[in-house]
User: Fold KAR-UP oxidoreductase 1 from Forsythia ovata.
Amino acid sequence: MEETVQVLEKVPIINFSHLHHDSVTKQIHEACRNFGFFHVMNHGISDSVIEEALNVNSNFFGLPMAMKEEFNSDDIQKPVRFSRLQIGCHENEMLSRDFLKLYAHPLHQFVNLWPSNPLNYREKMGIYATEVRKLGIELFGAIMESLNLSPTYLKQIFEQGMQVIGINSYPPCLGSSVKTGIAEHTDHSIITILLQSSPGLHIMDRSDGTWKSIRKIKGSLEVIVGDHLETISNGLYKSVLHRAIPSSNNCTRLTIANLHSLGMDDIVEPAAKLVDEEHPKGYRGSSLRDYLGHLSSKDATPFNHKIKI
Ligand code: OGA
Ligand code: NI
Assistant:
């Protein structure tokens, strides 16, 4: 029997145009602390930029498999990689999705490796990636401020950091025993900025330990606290367990996740200001490369457990 999942009613909605106002900083603090998640509105990325990003990806995933498989690889360190994944189980069913990963920063270093079919793919996704990156940098500063750190804490390193775009396509039906979706996980990033074409995202509600579905709010983007923000905050902001179980209607659900991290070999540590006798250092230093190494090792322990002291 399908489990019934309630809607999470009290999800914070952050008004980006009022970032750095005290009340919004407080709202970000509460959101990251209590949910590991928030919506962001008035983020400045235009509807047309968003629509075109979704469109070119929809066209890419609509290509014959042979053309997408050109980007297929077992090497998870590849800057561009396509795969049809079958990972994890949900109610004894396999969960599957089509997945395209793109490294996106610095853009000029990677954009020529991105798909060139459809023809406008690089242009439209390049614009979206650049705009989301600006948003990510602003949000990062506001989140640091919400931790009572300087809004410029790690700013320069974050600005030089990695941006990995994960594009997920969830077709309505892949076969009788296979459902589409993404199994529960936390993101390894500092923050992930998620764009959804339709609802389907669930997060674990810490207040009662049950799954809740997230409404799709028109014009909003979703912000997910990742493992490396948990590290920086010394455990004050926990990365949020989430999954996607799109409803089985006739539409393909498309999501674009922008994962923002420090550089590949930058070591992420708890902020010194958040470590004291009462709050001892709870996390080992780790880099994005450490995470990728962990992922290739097939060690089933989640990365965020590995880095806890
Ligand atoms: C992800 C992710 C959720 C979704 O790509 O890490 O959690 O709704 N995606 O596709
Ligand atoms: Ni995720």
